[in-house]
Write a structure and sequence with these properties.
Layout (H helix, E strand, L loop, with lengths): L2 H26 L7 E8 L5 E3 L10 E6 L4 E4 L6 E2 L6 E11 L2 E13 L9 E4 L4 E4 L3 E5 L1 E3 L5 E7 L7 E2 L12 E6 L7 E9 L2 E4 L3 E6 L11 E3 L2 H12 L11 E4 L3 E2 L17 E10 L2 E3 L8 E5 L2 E13 L4 E2 L2 E5 L4 E3 L2 E8 L3 E2 L2 E4 L5 E3 L2 E2 L2 E4 L2 E4 L2 E4 L2 E3 L2 E2 L3 E3 L1 E4 L2 E4 L2 E3 L2 E2 L4 E3 L8 E2 L2 E4 L4 E3 L2 E3 L18 E3 L1 H4 L2 H7 L8 E3 L7 E3 L17
Parallel strand pairs: 2-7, 9-17, 18-19, 19-21, 20-21, 21-24, 22-24, 23-26, 24-27, 24-28, 25-29, 26-30, 27-31, 28-32, 28-33, 29-34, 30-35, 31-36, 32-37, 33-38, 34-39, 35-40, 36-41, 37-42, 38-43, 39-44, 40-45, 41-46, 42-47, 47-48
Antiparallel strand pairs: 1-3, 3-4, 5-6, 6-7, 8-11, 10-14, 12-13, 12-15, 15-16, 15-17, 49-50
Amino acid sequence: MTKRELIRNAALICAAVLCLSVMLAGCKKKEKEVTFVSIEVTTQPTKKTYTEGEQFDPAGMVVTATYSNGSKAPVTVTAAMLSYDFKTAGTKTVTITYTEKGKTATTTVTGITVNEAEEPDTPPDITSHPEDVTATVGEYATFTVVATGTEPLEYRWQYSEDNGTTWDDFNEISYESATTPTLNSLWLSMWHNDMRIRCIVSNAYGEIISNPATLTVVPFLGSGAELDPYLISNAVQLKLLAEYINDDIAPYAAAGVYYRLDDNITMTVYFTPIGTYDNPFRGTFDGNGKVITGLTINTTSDYTGLFGRVSGGKISNLGLAGVNIKGGDYTGGVAGYITGSGSSITGCYVTGTVIGIGLVGGIAGEVVTITTTINNCYTTCSVSGTSNYVGGIVGGSGGTVNNCYATGAISGYRLCGGITGSNSVKVNNCAALNPSVNRESGSSNTDFGRVTGINYGSGELNNNAAFSGMTTDSGVSFGDSDNNGTGIEKPSIKTPSTYQGSLLWNFSTVWKWGDGDYKLPVLQWQTAPPALGLPLHLLD
């Protein structure tokens, strides 16, 4: 081979080597990697309104993935990628989570509306039945039923008087709640006792009847024992007491039964007195510091008052405010006639008007038993009778009257006094503060007194006082006898020491001084003095 050929071959070899080096260098360069970046909803789902409890429907929705080189690709959406809550109504969002090669991205579908699910049409079902009720006369009973079902639900309350054999609807006029879920304002009398009560609930898809409830009505709470007396809380019970005593209904009319007034009572109808001549009240009635207001009796019969006739009974701590009592003989505010060993009226007061024929008194018409006592009572009522024996406390007293006062006007035919019309036992430490003791028209009798009209036989009048300004009709002179008491002027009448000192009254546990303008004693249990205030004739 020639030198020229050698040189040419060497050049060709160098060129080939150079070309191969360039090619190998290019092969060492790697192409740049394309990565997943994000996803987005590029086409909204077809359905965007749902009802509570439905599942999300992705139909029509397109989700697109974007890559690092700008390229895009559709994503297949599976249920596992979706997160949402369609259990409750409202505006909702669906979250879509997608992972590719370890990279995770999310997007959302917004503006989805979930509506409340409509209740299915269902017949009524009772979830709570009316319960048994025990209550007393004069109270109100309430029964309630709870039901579910497609509205509107209709309610119809019924009652049965024969243990559920027959049923009648409650009158909607008398019972406005008779077509509501709660039957209330059921004002109770003994007629309701042992009644069954039920409710029929209905709608367009059916009806259901509740279990019956039993209504038990008792006359009074308590047992009538000394430590568990029968409790009287309303006017109906007070009238029922009169009915039971007057009809001699056991055990209520028996001797020694205890009653207690448990609330103030306002009377709105005429009242029949408790106790008759044949069936007197023989128990114990504790007024418990309560007041009966508006007691109204209008009769020509004898034995008239809250209590008509009492025999061996005891009445205490009772207020009678604004009475309007009209009766025959033996008429009084608290009692018309009191007899029997151990009878007593203690710590009571009466305001209003008491009118009768004979034997008429602000507290009692007549007391006929020597052992009977009227203690620590007062009256502001006017007392009048068309016949004999009229007094501010007792008309005709054959018992003992202690520590009482009266401020009302007295009038009668004869034998009238500010405290008693007559006395045959004792009147002690009383104050007759009446404006007048006058004769009824046509009377010419003169046996009228500031304290008592007449004192019989061995009757005692001890340490009594009377308003010195008390007036009477012409021809009658009060004079200076014990029948007229020791005269006291207005200033002394309105001074506590007159009663605590001179009259020996107990201001520790029985009496207290009146509030405000009522400058006279009141009972310890009273929360307020008489509503009309100090009598006009005692004002300065």
